[in-house]
């Protein structure tokens, strides 16, 4: 009886977080909940269905109903990707872009009738990666708006094709792409 009770307790405690270190300050996990202020707390399918949908290049995420833009054709640094508002929301600290920075997402401001396109948070990108997005060109690191935890000169990136994999990159690294989100 003790063995069964102990095993039951271990399975409850042990499943709360499965995280392992990745090179360059990143981590990978298979269970992490979103605590981001722009993430939807909706854990059901909402009114956007239970599968990814696409219309005119905009992909709608099941559950959260976030709209995702096409991936940027070119890679860019974080300063080119984020607007000053996105950077502030991401805690840019002492390493923010210019106050008048409009960021990459402004190019989508009329796409699908939406005007609230922005850089996603690290949590939004991570959640999308767990739901195996059905995007074209899903591979590769994408900038989040969030400044890294180790240095204000870094920002978080997420690869949607590798669920649970993210890492900090130098904000001036020009090798990452962007997908913008609307909603949330």
Rg over CA atoms, rounded to whole Å, is: 18 Å
User: What's the total helix number?
Assistant: 4
Question: How much β-strand is present in the residues?
Answer: 15-25%
Percentage of residues assigned to helices: 10-25%
* Mean pLDDT over all positions: 78
Look at the helices and sheets and give the structural class: alpha+beta
Low-confidence stretches: 1-45
Summarize the helix and strand pattern as letters. HEEEEEHHHEEEE
N-to-C terminal Cα separation, in Å?
Answer: 47 Å
Shape: globular
Description of the molecule:
- Helices cover 17% and strands 19% of the residues.
- Mean pLDDT is 78; it is low at 1-45.
- It starts with a helix and ends with a strand.
- By secondary structure, the chain is of the alpha+beta class.
- A hairpin with a 6-residue loop joins β4 and β5 (67-68).
- The protein has helices at 2-14, 78-81, 84-89, 122-130; strands at residues 19-21, 27-29, 53-55, 58-60, 67-68, 141-147, 154-159, 165-170, 181-182.
- Strands 1-2-8-7-6 form a 5-stranded antiparallel beta sheet. It has a 4-stranded antiparallel beta sheet with strand order 3-4-5-9, with no helix packed on it.
